[in-house]
Write a structure and sequence with these properties.
The complex is a heterodimer. Chain A is an alpha+beta fold. Chain A has 2 helices and 5 strands; from the N terminus they run E-E-H-E-H-E-E. Chain A has a single domain, classed as Hypothetical protein apc22750. Chain B (Translation Initiation Factor IF3, 2-Layer Sandwich). Chain A has a 4-stranded mixed sheet with strand order 1-4-5-2. By secondary structure, chain B is α+β, with helices and mostly antiparallel strands. Chain B is about 50% helix and about 25% strand. In chain B, strand 3 and strand 4 form a beta hairpin. Chain B starts with a helix and ends with a strand. The chains are: A alpha+beta, B alpha+beta. Strand 3 of chain A pairs antiparallel with strand 2 of chain B, so a sheet runs across the interface.
């Protein structure tokens, strides 16, 4: 499975377009880590637990998108885009979407 | 008496936010500059198409994420700044740091998987505010290419 945000892959040829596939997940951190993050708000800087959360969530969203692509017979997802929306304090939706395609070696 | 205590507490928070925030920012900048030199050979471009001369053996998605938060002092000054408008340097540097950090993580991921060329890099940022202090998520993503050996 080739996943890329390019519109074409050098050395590959698109033989079939299979439509949009997407994967999303909504995540929140548990209260303990949330409390620590609010202490961190005093001095500023990176909120590591949140970075981790977002990274995990993004991986998960991509995996779900790939699973959907596989289920319709694609072997690649091109032109992938990400979007993040904060739903309430401490919870966010991460969305990955792209075009499912079948690729062969050019 | 109560009001005086409250004022004291507020000023303490302000001072801690200012002092610690500044030190952390300076350290972060030093670390960013060092890693930027280390990763200078991993190239990243924003163009939509891969270079015509590259025949890729692999292509895969790489990303770098960072969530940063403002500090107590910056948030307070931002509140004052809103009254008069204009440029707010405190937040500018915060976002710049976050973006450079995200790009560094993207490059690091590309290198770990054997690539030295990332194309179609996109930045995205989302405010995930918690209470009064804003936090911002910055993500950089792109396609890493591994060229075929000639």
């Amino acid at each position: 499975m080739i996943t890329s945000n390019l519109e074409l892959i050098p050395g590959k040829r698109i033989v079939e377009h299979l439509g949009i596939v997407q994967g999303s997940t909504v995540r929140a951190k548990h209260a303990g880590k949330d409390l620590f993050a609010s202490l961190k708000n005093l001095v500023g800087g990176e909120l590591k637990s949140y970075t981790e959360l977002m990274q995990e969530a993004r991986t998960e969203a991509v995996e779900r998108m790939q699973a959907e692509a596989r289920s319709i017979g694609a072997n690649g997802v091109l032109n992938v885009r990400f979007a993040t929306t904060s739903i309430t304090a401490g919870a966010a939706e991460i969305l990955a979407y792209g075009s499912a395609v079948r690729l062969v070696d050019a | 008496m109560g009001a005086l205590l409250e004022l004291g507490w507020f000023l303490t928070l302000l001072a801690v936010g200012y002092g610690a925030g500044r030190i952390l920012e300076r350290r972060h900048y030093a670390s960013i500059r060092r890693r930027e030199r280390e990763l200078a050979d991993v190239l990243a471009f924003t163009m939509r198409f891969p270079p015509k001369t590259t025949r890729a053996q692999h292509a895969f998605l790489v990303s770098g994420t960072v969530v940063v938060s403002s500090d107590y002092f910056k948030t307070f000054v931002a509140g004052l700044r809103r009254l008069v408008g204009g440029r707010f340097r405190g937040y500018e540097s915060l976002l710049e740091r976050a973006r450079r950090e995200a790009l560094l993580r993207l490059k690091q991921q590309a290198r770990e998987r054997g690539s030295a060329l990332v194309v179609c890099v996109r930045f995205e940022s989302t405010a995930i505010t918690r209470g009064r202090v804003p936090s911002i998520e910055v993500v950089a993503y792109g396609t890493a290419l591994v060229p075929q050996p000639r």
